[in-house]
Fold this protein.
Amino acid sequence: MANAIFGQVLTAMVTPFHADGSINDAGVIKLVNHLLETGSDGIVVCGTTGESPTLSHSEKLHLFRLVKQTAGKRGTVIAGTGGNDTAASIELTKEAAEIGVDGALLVVPPYNKPSMEGLYRHFRAIAECVPNLNCMVYNVPSRTAQNMDTATTVRLAKDIPNIVATKEASGNLVQMAEIVAESPSDFAVYSGDDGLTLPLLAVGGVGVVSVIAHLVGRRMKEMHTAFFAGELTRAACLNAQMLPILKACFQSTTPSPVPLKAGLNRLGIEVGGLRLPLVEANESEQAIMFRTMERMGLL
């Protein structure tokens, strides 16, 4: 099985904002410390959960620097540098590498809907411009309207030395298992869906890029530790314990990270609101989150 090159539990960090929508540096520092102290091995910055589509180029670079400086050697920092413009992604990835991040997260381009050959060339072009930076490709068809198939992921894994991992959020466990089976033995497959983490570990995955680890990071880390120690019943029990917060974070009426930000603010970890077109959780959505947190002993 592949090593968890970036760590087992990576948290896709929300971006803390002030009331006026600007980045809250103090909030970023507090959140990074919270995550690294509660089970996260690494942090993904400016991913989907970080509201990357509404962050400017300069804001992303600022966040990469701040999170890397705050984390130091306590955890890995993976910069979300992918997008639907290959040239712009190359520029941002080069700048992230100069900052000293530990890896780059490269999402399947949204909106363009390229062919599989286009996806291959897109990721190859970015990775080859930063040969000394490890890259993780990110397949999330619910957000991009395009599923990168197994053959393309495996082709990238075999052809490009610094494409070392994938974040699979296709929701298709068979596809995930095929990638594990067909890719090189040192290629790491991470779950992009908290609810599929344990099943993915069972078929050879190495970890998760998590949303709920903001709130239950210790349990998420304990589940990984138990699984790899062969304590499968305990791992299943820990997984079951986290299901209520999973459902609260991913409500059908509003997208992530809306409920999560409400929960973090209630916990006293001030992350502020959201940037349009996302809007804050309504009373009903907040009530679901807060009741769940209370029942789980998080409040």
User: Anything to note?
Assistant: Residues 9-231 form a domain with the TIM Barrel fold (CATH 3.20.20.70). The radius of gyration is 18 Å.
